[in-house]
Amino acid sequence: MNKSILILVFLLGFAGMAKAQEDCKLRGEIRDSIGFPVYDAAVSAFNSKSEGVAFTFTDVDGHFELAVPCGETYDVEVEHVEYESFSQSVLVDRTKSLKFKLNKSTISLQEAVIQAKKPITVKGDTIEYDANSFRTAADENLEDLLKKLPGLQVENGKVYYEGKEITTIKVGNREVLGGNTKLLTKNLPADAIDKIQLNKKFKANPFSNSLSDDEEAILNIELREDKKSLLFGNVTVGGDAQEHADGQAKLFYFSPKTDGTFIADYNTYGKEVFTNEDYVSFFGGFRELMEEGSSFSLRESQRNVMLGSANDAAEMNSLIGAVHFGYEPNKKIYTNGFVLFNQNNLAFNSTQERISEGLNFLDEQKNDQNLLTTMGRFRLDYTPDSRSQIKYRLNFNYFENESEQLADRFLNGNSLGNTRFFQNNTGYGLKHNLSYIRKIGKDHNLGIYLRHQLSQDDPNMNISSSMIPVVIDSLAFNNLRQDRQLQTQNFQVYGIYNHLLTNTSNLRFKLGSNFSWQNLTNSIFEGNDLITNENFQTDSNLDFTELYADLTYTRKFGAFKFDVGAGVHNFASKSNFLTGNRSTNLTKFIPHFKMDVNVKNAHNVVLEYNQEYKLPNLVNLSDGYEVQNYYSIYRGFMDLKESLYHNLSLRYGYYNSFSFLHLYVGGTYVRSIDNMQTSSELVPPTQFNSLINNTEDDQNLVLYFGGGKRFNRFYSLNANANLSFMDYFTNISSINPTDGTMEQNWVNNTAFTQNYTLTNTFKFKKKVELDLGLNYLTSRFESVTDFDFVTWRPFAKAAWSITDKFLLQSDYSYRIQYQNDELINENQALNASLRFHVAKSTYLTFIAGNILGNDQLVNSSFDSKSNQTVINTRELLGRYFLLQLRYKF
C-alpha cells in the first residue's frame, strides 16, 4: 500500500509534466526598421480576459520565446523604451514563429507601458502592477492579490522574488505594522489597494554606492485615494459546548503619518497565533538581528524568547496581547514600537525511550508548563539632511517559565522509581543599537555603529527521587536543588568606510572592537544543605576583548563581481574560577573571498569562502558541575582552546519569474580544526558531559536543490531537496560489561540525512485548488552502533469554493516511520473547515480538527553524545469541533 501511494504521487507529478506538453511555444524575432535586433524588449501575452499569461525579454539577438496554452487567441504586445509600442492578435494552435518590426520612437519615453490598460508598468528597476487588472471578487487580502502577480511567489503570508524572501513591504512608501510582512499580507483588504510596486534594487543604506551588497527587492503598496486613512481588522468568537474556547481581535489602522496594531487572542485548543517567526519580524527581522558587527567569536548563541511549546498539547490555554504604533511626522523622522504579552499553560503526557547497546531507559512523563513572556521594541530613524542618517533600536524581553515533570523511570524493564523534576527559569534581555551613516563626497560613505546587549538567566531547579538518587562524585542526592545565574554583557564599537575608486572598483575598510563580560554562579544543595565540596560551587567570570581591522577590495568585470579581503583580529580573554585563573592572547589573520556572477538578471552564481575562529565562553570553561536534568550532568573544561572553521559555499539560481520558472542548487562545506566536541562519561543511569578539543578534523557538507514551474493556469509543480552529511568525533567513556572497567574511546560518527518534497498544485476554474505531494525523509547514523530512520509522508490539501457563500478547506497527511526497517509509528491526520459567508462582512465557520482522533506524535533521533537512539512520544489534543463567528471590517 505504501509503495502504491508513493508511485501515485510521483505519477501525478510526471503526469502534470506531460500535460505541460499541451502548451505551445510562441517564438519570435524583433528587429528595428533597418534590420538590427532589438535587445531587452518586453514581450507579453494577454488572453481574452486581459490576464497576463506570459512575459519575457528579448535576448541580444532579438529572440524571445513564450509558453502559452494552445487553442487560444492572445494579444502579443512588445514594448521598448526607445521604440514605438507594437501589438498583434495571434491564434496559438501550434508552435509558432513570428517576426516583429519596431519603429524608433519620436518621443523620449519615461516608462515602458506593457498594456493599454497598464496592468504592468516598468519604470527602471521598478515594476508596477495595477491592482484592478488582477483583482477578482474572491480576493480578501493582499496575500490573495499577490498570488496573481507574475514574478512573485507567495507562501503562507511570505512573499518571494527570484527565490529570495521580500522582508520589507511598505504602504505609501512607509514601513507599517512594525515591519511584520506576514501581518500585513494576511490582513490588508484587497479592495483598498490601488497599485503594487516592486523595487528590485532597493538599498537599505541610502548612501550605499553602486558596488554595495545590500541590494534587495521590496514592495510598496499604494492605497486608493478613499482608503488613505484606513481602519480594518476582524473580531472572532468561537468554541464548542464543552471545554474549548476561541476569542480573537485584530485591529489595524494607518494614515499617511500614523499606523497602529492591536492583537488579542485567547484559545484552549492549541491554535498558533504569534510564532517565533513573528517575534523575529517585530524585532526587525533576521537582517537586523544578524546585522554586521564584529566576528563575535565566543561560542554563544543569542537567547531566544520562548513563546510556548507543544501547541497541540492535550490540555492548553493561551493568551496573547500585542500593541504596536508607528509615527512619521515628516520625511526626516520615523519612529515605531510595540509591546507583546504572552501566557501559555500546557499539560500533556509523554514517554522518552533512550536505547543503547545493552541499555534501554524508559521514562513515562507527566508534564506541566506555565510560560509568561513580555517583549517590546522601540525604533527611531532620523535623517537630518540629505547626506546623513541616524538610527536607534531598543529591544527588551522578560520571561518566566515554570515547568514540572513527573517521571516513572525504568531500566531494561526494571523500575527505578519516580522522579520529580521542577524548574523555574526567569530571565531578561536588553539590546540597543545606535548607528550614524554619512555620505562623504560624491561616492564614499562612512558608518559608525555602537551595540550594547545585557541579559540574565536564572534557571533554578529541584529534583527529588523516590528510589534511585542523582549521584555526583559518589554523593547521592534524593532532594537536589540548584540555584544558577548567568549574566552576559556585550559592547561593540566599529566603523565601516567605503571608498569608490572607480565605477567598477571599491575599497572597504572596517575597524572595530568587541567586548564581553560574563559572570556565572551556581550552588547545589541536598534539601537545604549547601554542598561545599570541590566543583559543587561555581563563581566564575570572563572578560573578553577583540580588536580587529579588515580591508576588502571589490572589482566588477561585466557580469562578474569579486570581493577579496582579509582581517587581522586580536583576541584576549581572562577568566577567574574558584579553582584557578586562565588568560589567552592571540592574533589571527583571517582571509575571505566572494565571487558573484549575474547573467541577464536571470542566472546568478555565488561562490564564497571565509574563515572563522570561535573561542570558548564562560559556560564552556567553568569546571563546576551544572545539573541539566535528572540523567545528565555538565561540567566545563578550563583548558579548551579556540576552534578554526573553514566555510565554503556555492549557489546557482535561475529565475524567470514571468514564465513562472525558478531553479536553484547549491551547497556548503565546513571543515573545523580543533573543534570543541562533546566528551561524555556514561555511568548508568547518569551521563556526565563536557567539552574537549577534537584532534581530528570534523566536517559537514550540505547540498540543496529545488525549483518550481507553473506550466499553465491549471497546474504547477514544486520540488526541493536537502542532503546533509556530517563526519565528526565524540569522546565517550563507558563501562566495559566484561570486567566493569571504564573505557575511553574517540568515536567517529557519521550522519547522512536526506529530505525530499514534491508538491503538485492543481486549479480548476478558480473554484478548486488541490495540492498533492510526498515528503521522504531518511537519516542514517553510523557510530558505535548503526541506525536508520525513514519517514514517508504523503499529503494533500484542498480548497473548494462551492458557491460564493461556501468555502470548504481540508488537509490530510499520512506518516509512516521506520527504524532499521522496523515500523515504529504510523498515523494519519485530517482537518477540515466549512466557512459560510453570512453577510458582507460576517463569516460563520465550522472547524473539525484531528478528525481521525490521532492521540500521539512520535519523533525519533540519534544522540551521538551518549550513543543512544532517542524516541519521544507525546500525547496530542485529540479530536475537536468548533463553531466560529468572525466579523471583518
TrEMBL record:
The keyword Signal applies. SUPFAM superfamilies: Carboxypeptidase regulatory domain-like, Porins. Residues 1-20 form the signal peptide. The keyword Zinc does not apply. Keywords: Signal. This is Outer membrane receptor proteins, mostly Fe transport. It comes from Moheibacter stercoris.
